[in-house]
Write a structure and sequence with these properties.
This protein has eight helices and 21 strands. By secondary structure, it is an alpha/beta fold. The relative contact order is 0.14.
């Protein structure tokens, strides 16, 4: 059965099949709406149902609460129509958004940067043009049909080289193959191995039409897309003030600390504030401690005139958005995020009606 949906009170009418999510139908028709995991876990695609009825589908309870549903919120990546619907959502206008495609790639290098963090570089075929926006991600395609998503940590480049930052999640279908002896989904990954990927994906990238100062907020390997966006901004000589708050559990997890510190010497408009959450002795760490988004609030209690780009664990991203919007005057539209969901996060998804 075919329904129709409209967006943001526009007169434009779009088709949607009963078994399609709103996000699937929108992307198929060239509408770029915010999204991240596409599995109901990260809440990046949260929107408002203005008219009509939907099946909310499978999603993680933390991504969409019952109170939010009462207030007509839904997740574009899981909601399917039960009637014609009208949706209120942020429509992203970015000329030249590239349609994702599936490609082979060769593992160029695997560098262990910390006990459980590796930088993996992938080389795409020279014959394939692979342009993307700094901050987007790719899906690694595993042989059993599973996918694992990783953000590019470098901007698009003529060498067709992708840099991924991968944290080991014991039992993970792909990370065990990087750090251990392989899994049922993929053999142990070594240099020169051939993998398959799909991309570019996601709507996390720098909004260049703004002149507002930027707060970069990262936890763990959420630094990867932030690194790509920052390097892109540096390469384009963007002069907006930029502040990077990078939160980790222990100092050893600041796996590119020296490189980021060097940025502060090279670019006068860039500041770096690392934050450690675990209790450590002062001789090991004399910098800021606690939750990384609290460090932002301490430094910037009023965020009304800032843009925030946040990447990392879903709980950090959600907490930051809530506190910044409710307590620090941040306009909700100025919070851009990419929550890093794991297989464990997705396993928590459940069906709500």
């Amino acid at each position: 059965m075919t329904f129709h949906f409209t967006l943001n009170s526009s007169r434009e009418i779009y088709k949607i099949e009963k078994n399609q999510t709103i996000l699937q139908a929108a992307l198929k028709q060239g509408l770029v709406l915010p999204y991240g995991c596409k599995n109901g876990a990260c809440a990046s695609c949260k929107a408002t149902l203005v008219k009509g009825d939907v099946d909310y589908g499978h999603y993680q309870a933390k991504a969409l609460t019952e109170e939010e549903k009462i207030n007509k919120k839904l997740l574009l990546c899981t909601a399917k129509p039960l009637s014609n619907v009208e949706i209120q959502a942020n429509l992203i206008s970015k000329p030249g958004m590239v349609s994702p495609k599936k490609l082979p790639c060769r593992v160029e290098s695997i560098e262990k940067k910390a006990e459980d963090i590796a930088i993996v570089k992938l080389k795409l075929p020279a014959s394939e043009k692979f342009n993307y926006y700094a901050g987007q991600y790719v899906d690694i395609l595993l042989k059993d049909g599973k996918r694992r998503s990783y953000s590019m940590a470098n901007p698009s480049n003529l060498q067709n080289l992708l840099e991924l930052h991968i944290r080991h999640s014991p039992g993970g279908a792909f990370t065990d193959a990087i750090f251990e002896s392989g899994t049922s989904s993929i053999n142990s990954v070594k240099v020169k191995d051939i993998l398959r990927l799909e991309g570019p994906l996601g709507t996390f990238f720098l909004r260049e039409d703004s002149s507002k100062p930027i707060i970069f907020l990262a936890s763990g390997t959420g630094f990867a897309p932030i690194k790509a966006v920052a390097e892109y901004a540096f390469s384009k000589n963007i002069q907006r003030e930029m502040f990077l708050f990078w939160g980790v559990r222990k100092p050893s997890e600041l796996y590119m600390h020296d490189s980021v510190t060097e940025w502060t010497r090279q670019f006068s408009n860039f500041k770096y504030i690392p934050v450690v959450s675990d209790n450590v002795e002062k001789k090991q760490w004399s910098g800021k401690t606690g939750f990384v988004h609290h460090a932002v609030i301490d430094e910037f209690p009023d965020l009304q005139n800032y843009s925030v780009y946040s990447c990392g664990s879903p709980i950090m991203v959600r907490s930051a958005q809530k506190d910044f919007v409710e307590n620090c005057n941040l306009p909700e539209r100025e919070f851009y995020s990419d929550a890093f969901t794991t297989a464990a996060d997705l396993a928590e998804n459940k069906e709500k009606k």
